[in-house]
């Protein structure tokens, strides 16, 4: 199938072709006809499957259809959980709508409201926003959502994870009852199904990857290492293997800063990206990483949400995530669009339980490798695990599969403006466990 088979206008096809695309991804091939048909949609797609274009292309097509009515208020609202993702989506709107007479604006916190207010008052067709800042504009009466025709919840699972449900309810209450609603999520969890049953009307369902599947093209490895030696092992892996573009995950903002500083002292060009960084600093760091001016970008989970880098070769879990599903999101940054990728996890003794939870989710063990001088147990061999072979972990660590799963909590950019310095890492709102990192 080609994009030319999907009923898109010549102007949109021209913009798509200029980006080097002629064939849609599976999520695009399935979603575009559904959206063009006016149906509500509940779509599950892994990171890197092209889901953003899966809704931006048909939405642009629907908005470009001639209408006798004059439109002075926003007709499309896209909600995203993070600033980076909002910027990425709005950039997609601009890219594919470059030959259409449509206006869009991206709305998120961490930057001044004045430029956003000016854009809203001048009239826009599409708003891409994070919930908290959008509600700020609602409170200031600078936005009117009463004419929204299409409402899109992007990465709905992460929305719930970050405690945005109360904000979502407040926003939906401001929208017309009659509208087309699209929901995109990495999984169809029970919570997502409840959300869909509340806000979607007879939705069509699309699922292009099995739940919690990891990219087939991603090679996954674990290095068991003492916590104090993680930084030195990471430096050795980068230098010995000639890694030139590495996305490294830490659990905390402080840890991201400290690691980026240590890598810099080792001669590796690095920067950290997290919620305490100003949006301008985050945008510059991401741009430098994409252009290879930086070799390592150290990020927290939420800050990395929405980072879209073609052909990213390496992802490193410097610290394993507390929530196993976040491992899926992390390693999904590499191995995209049919390209090979590598995901490496540096695991100390305190993280063995987290590793077992991840393997339980994956329903398989991850291959263990070793580097001379960094082994934590002489029984750990630097070789692949053969089928049926059980890995031997250090004494006191239960083998994979012999545990009761721990209950856990439910589960590119063109910013409007930028500021320097530090910004608070929380946004006003009534949601619980809500973090901006």
TrEMBL record:
Domain DEAD-box RNA helicase Q: 1-29
InterPro entries, alphabetized: DEAD/DEAH_box_helicase_dom, DEAD/DEAH_RhlB, DEAD_box_RNA_helicase, Helicase_ATP-bd, Helicase_C-like, P-loop_NTPase, RNA-helicase_DEAD-box_CS, RNA_helicase_DEAD_Q_motif
Pfam families per the UniProt record, alphabetical: DEAD, Helicase_C
Region Disordered: start-end pairs: 382-437
Motif stretch (Q motif): 1-29
Residues in Helicase C-terminal domain copies: 229-377
Entry keyword Membrane: no
Residues of the Helicase ATP-binding domain: 32-206
Enzyme Commission designation: 3.6.4.13
Taxonomic superkingdom: Bacteria
A GO CC annotation given for this chain: cytosol
Catalysis: reaction(s): ATP + H2O = ADP + phosphate + H(+)
Gene Ontology molecular-function annotations: ATP binding; hydrolase activity; nucleic acid binding; RNA helicase activity
CDD domains tied to this protein: DEADc, SF2_C_DEAD
Low complexity: compositionally biased ranges: 404-418
GO biological process: response to temperature stimulus; ribosome assembly
Keyword NADP: no
Biased composition (Polar residues): 419-429
Top enzyme class: hydrolase
This protein's UniProt keywords: ATP-binding, Cytoplasm, Helicase, Hydrolase, Nucleotide-binding
Family according to the record: Belongs to the DEAD box helicase family.
Protein name per Swiss-Prot or TrEMBL: DEAD-box ATP-dependent RNA helicase RhpA
Origin species: Noviherbaspirillum galbum
